[in-house]
Amino acid sequence: MEQLQATMKEYNQFKRKIQQRVEILEETLQELESRELLDPGGSARWREHLGRVHASLEDSLLRVAVVGSVKSGKSTLINALAGKDFLRRGAGIITSFITRVQTNDTPGGWVELKGWPQILQELNGSLRMLPVAQEVLGERTVVDIRKAKERKRLKIFLERMQAEWLQSDGRIDPHFFLLQGYLSGFECLKESLGDAPKRLMFDEHNVHLHQSYVGHQGQSVYLRDMEIHCPISWMGAQIELADCQGSDSPNPRHFALLQQYLLGCHFILYVISSRIGLREADFRLLDFIKTLRMFPQTLFVLNVDLNEHPHMDDINGMIERVRSELGWVITAPRIFAFSALYQLLSQCSHDMEGPVRGHFLLWKNIPELAEFSESGFTEFREQVEKRISGQRSRVLLGSGLSRLSMVSGSIRDSVRVQRDFMEQRLCGLNECASQFASKQKALQSTLGTLENAINGLRDSLASEMKGRIDGFFDLQDGPVVLETAETVDHFPIDPQHRRGLKDSAGALRQLYRFYLDFRQALSRYLVEKVNLRVISFSKELEELISERLESSAQAFWSLFTTAVAEYRRQMAEFQIETESLENMEEPQWGTWEKRIPPSFSAFVEEEATGRGVLLVKFGLTRIARLLAQMGSRVGRYRDLPSDGSENQSSVEDAIDLVKMETKGELLQAFARYHMEFSETYVRQILEDSIRQLLDEFHARIEMTRLDFNHLLRHGERKGEGEESEMDVLIRACRVTEAMVEELEGLRYAVNLER
Fold it and tell me: What confidence tens digit (pLDDT) does each residue in 591-614 have?
């Protein structure tokens, strides 16, 4: 604990040091400005850059994803890290949002309820995905559960649906649970719902009420989003812990949501239950994390059930087993093993009653178990805190400390020239002022040359990226397009769908069953395969852009430093010191603000919704007419015997039609996504990176500027204040010289810690 507190303390001290130095420079500038010892343009530039340093001191939100399978203990781990039992443990799995906990200073938060348009859209979309909905409710019926009659009809329909499933293969469609949730939660929430989404706010006195929304299926389906605020002092502010959906959730959309959050997070806490171990879904998620290149930012937690594993030999064996299995995908994985529940109870056991408290007292009285869990959890917390403070320090070092060093060095050079001129050590300045202006203009022209070269680099990269993107998404030969089309063509027909075809009603029902299987499989394929391929491709493009930028930027930097060295040499001929240019630090090239590629599966869903489809209904545009025709035959030929041959042919024709229609829709989606991917993702990365590249050179050129005309004008003013002005300049020189030296030492110390 002492080491943990020390690390965060060191980071906060680092921040305070930078803050204090910014304030000192601002005071120095203010004093120089009050004596008109600085030209207004130069002063404004310095203040602008100090403002950027100020901004870097504000901690941006740092996102930590807590992932793992259903019931692995993700919520319990977050509670243990917070030291309080505030997140509901073992909540349901039908909610389609991620519970986000932010470490704000004041407890509170909010839940956001869906608006009626979204509710009715989801409800009717799910209803159409159930096999007998078309037959019972009609093709164009829209169910509105705000009406008592509609709720009654929906209840009867769901009861019939459940009975049918129990009589067949016993499988219940996930859409059934969504509909049942909407029905059961209506009475409780009807007064809170409206046409627009509505946020219910919580403060420190009632924040616990959020559990009633998340923990009950009937209320959780009405939730659109939620955010809980909980102070966790040892973590600091602006940390977001995301309690993500289980990796083995049966709903493909949950895995898509998890993918999107991981794309924007900074760290991952991967929770593995000792009762379950690693499953197939875990390796699917691990493969995705590998694609993101985020294994270095992932901490693995083996959450030990002390009831299931009451002996250390058993626990150690489980640790080795998990380490061995993780070794299939990651080299030498580090595993933190402890009981999240024990650690939670050890911090708030006084609030627990009944069996839970009994378990805790039992475990606590077994010294080796208690020591094992305490030791593992302490080590884990130290590592989490180290990662957080390290990330903060890297950001501060890159955007704050380097810029502060640059500004302080530039101010030092400027006041030195002013001081030396007033001491008449630069007596030839009047005669050479025009030459100085010419030298500075030559250095400025180097920036113009660099701008042209950088813009040329942007055009070259844009052309190269376009070629690669066009090839990847080519509708004829693109690998991801071809693989998706082949998946549709070769989707197998379950033999069960060929049974019960003796009448049109049976054929209609079996066709719907095929369609549901097909849609579920294709949705999962888009999430698990296509999204993964697209994200992997996006990472390849990012790495390529970064490599090209870094290589070219180093050449640009060489050109720039050569021009700066010549400028320094020319200034030195007139005894003008420009030390800040000698120690100019090369920026870190090839980095930019993180951008997230659009999810293809989500894009397809949004496109379908935009075209008026309630859910992603692959292949239903034309098949709906065929189903209606088959449905009309149910009444006309109900009592006629049949060997089912005609119905079997109709079903097979319909299945072929589903596949053909689906491929057409997917090709259109790929074409539109191709443009979206190029314009909103790759193009923005290029623009961001080029803008940053130009900004780095602009900033350094600005720091070289000395306004000799202002210096000469001020030198013509002789009077009583000259001595006091000299004192101000001498004092400013001492302050900035000491600061430059101090900041260099601070940067060196931080680099050693990294």
Answer: 667 788 888 877 676 544 333 332
Other C-beta atoms within 10 Å of 751: how many? Answer: 9
Contact criterion met (CB below 8 Å) for 454 and 549? no
Residue pair 581/443 in contact by the 8 Å Cβ criterion: no
Looking up tokens 């001129």 gives 421
Q: Tokens standing for 362? A: 């039992």
Tokens read off for 424: 């008449």
| Beta pairing, strands 223-229 & 108-113 | antiparallel
- The residues spanned by each domain of the chain are 1-58+397-425+721-754, 62-104+230-365, 115-227, 431-717
Determine the topology of domain 62-104+230-365 in CATH: Rossmann fold (3.40.50)
Question: How many Å apart are CA 388 and CA 239, to the nearest integer?
Answer: 9
pLDDT in tens, 236-250: 888 999 999 888 887
Q: 108's torsion region: left (phi>0), alpha (psi -120 to 50) or beta?
A: left
Alpha-carbon span 248 to 244, nearest angstrom: 11
Q: pTM of the predicted model, to two decimals? A: 0.84
DSSP state of 94: -
Instruction: State the DSSP code for 424.
Output: T
Neighbours of 477 (CB within 10 A): 9
Going by their DSSP bridges, the two strands 108-113 and 267-273 should be labelled as unpaired
CATH class entry, domain 1-58+397-425+721-754: mainly alpha
What residues are paired with 242 via a beta bridge? 65, 100
Cβ atoms of 564 and 704 within 8 Å: the answer is: yes
Q: Cβ neighbours of residue 271 under 8 Å, at least 6 residues apart?
A: 66, 67, 68, 72, 73, 74, 77, 301, 303, 340
Q: Are 300 and 326 in contact (CB under 8 A)?
A: yes
Helix axes 531-572 and 600-610, enclosed angle (nearest 10) = 110
Name the helix (H) or strand (E) containing 626.
helix 620-636
CA 148 to chain centre: 42
Q: Residue 544 burial (CB < 10 Å; 0-12/13-18/19+)? A: middle
Round the CA-based radius of gyration of the chain to a whole number and report it. Answer: 33
DSSP 8-state class, residue 587 = P
From first CA to last CA, the distance across the chain in angstroms is 21
